[in-house]
Amino acid sequence: MGSQSDWPTMKLASEVLDELEVEHEARIVSAHRTPDRMSAFAKGAEGEGFDVIIAGAGGAAHLPGMIAAMTHLPVLGVPVQSKALSGMDSLLSIVQMPAGIPVGTLAIGDAGAKNAALMAAAILALNDEDLSERLQDWRAARTGDVGEVPVD
Ligand code: RP5
After folding, report:
1. What is the total count of domains within the chain?
2. Ligand 1, atom 14: nearest CA belongs to which residue?
3. Can you tell me which residues bind substrate (predicted)?
4. Pocket residues: Cβ below 6 A from ligand 1
5. Known binding site for substrate: residues?
6. Angle value at C-alpha 48, between 25 and 139, nearest 5 degrees
7. What is the pLDDT along the chain (152 residues), one digit of tens a residue?
């Protein structure tokens, strides 16, 4: 993520990954404030053993796109909800990538963070039957949580 201030949102992705028992790390890597750290991370991610990157940022959210420019690992972008423009700035900064440099862009805010984790897990599950089962169980449990009638 681009900042400590993104953590309340990105923590939700981390929690879903914990629930699915997907090994992961959370790091602060800013495209603007720590560009050298971002570059080193993006270029070294595959060598460090990462398979998928979830990049969350808000405002002028260049982090996902810049990381995608420097790795061929799948990059999922989470537009963090900004105070000034409610995350529309984040969304548009992340989603409008030029052809050839893809970022899989999720929804603004909490839903995007959770879904990024589920999408990352689904990618990893293509080559991991146990994870595929855990993911299907997780999804089935959420379906089971939906009541048929509203309660007061
Ligand atoms: C972006 O700027 C970060 O991803 C964050 O969402 C936003 C604001 O960062 P802070 O000023 O709170 O550190 O780079």
Report:
1. 1
2. 2
3. 3, 6, 33
4. 2-3, 5-6, 30, 32, 57-59, 80
5. 3, 6, 33
6. 45
7. 999 999 999 999 999 999 999 999 999 999 999 999 999 999 999 999 999 999 999 999 999 999 999 999 999 999 999 999 999 999 999 999 999 999 999 999 999 999 999 999 999 999 999 999 999 999 999 999 999 999 99
Instruction: Write out the binding residues.
Output: 3, 6, 33
Please identify, by atom number, the ligand 1 atom nearest to the C-alpha of residue 90: 6
Cα–Cα distance list, 93 to 59, 80, 134, 138 (Å): 8, 11, 33, 31
Contact 88, 58 (CB under 8 A): no
Provide the phi-psi class of 58: left if phi over 0, else alpha when psi is between -120 and 50, else beta: beta
Domain that includes residue 58, residue range? 4-137
- What ipTM was predicted for this assembly? 0.97
Residue 152 lies in a domain: no
